[in-house]
């Protein structure tokens, strides 16, 4: 015989209901396995955010880029006004 003891079922239906008590169907196991891959995804996303923050330009560079962008927009508006002739109308109203 085998060394492993088989459970003795006194209730005739207990053997058929035993699968419900298996650890796979435990509530804790079901909740833990509800989102497979979530832990790995969380670690990967955290690493991405950390790398992005470390490799991004600092705030003074961002300020310089914004100022440069505003200057380019002003130049574009001036050029567009000169080409369309609206620049003269603005000068007349002032």
UniProtKB/TrEMBL annotation:
Protein's membrane topology: Single-pass membrane protein
Family indicated by similarity: Belongs to the complex I NDUFB3 subunit family.
Chief location bin: mitochondrion
BP GO terms, sorted: electron transport chain; mitochondrial respiratory chain complex I assembly
Record localization: Mitochondrion inner membrane
Cited Pfam families: NDUF_B12
Family annotation (PANTHER family): NADH DEHYDROGENASE [UBIQUINONE] 1 BETA SUBCOMPLEX SUBUNIT 3, NADH-UBIQUINONE OXIDOREDUCTASE B12 SUBUNIT
Cellular-component GO terms for this entry: mitochondrial inner membrane
Name by which UniProt lists this protein: Uncharacterized protein
Keyword line: Electron transport, Membrane, Mitochondrion, Mitochondrion inner membrane, Respiratory chain, Transmembrane, Transmembrane helix, Transport
Task of the protein: Accessory subunit of the mitochondrial membrane respiratory chain NADH dehydrogenase (Complex I), that is believed not to be involved in catalysis. Complex I functions in the transfer of electrons from NADH to the respiratory chain. The immediate electron acceptor for the enzyme is believed to be ubiquinone.
InterPro entries per UniProt: NDUFB3 (IPR012576)
Species this chain originates from: Puccinia striiformis f. sp. tritici PST-78
Membrane-spanning ranges: 34-51
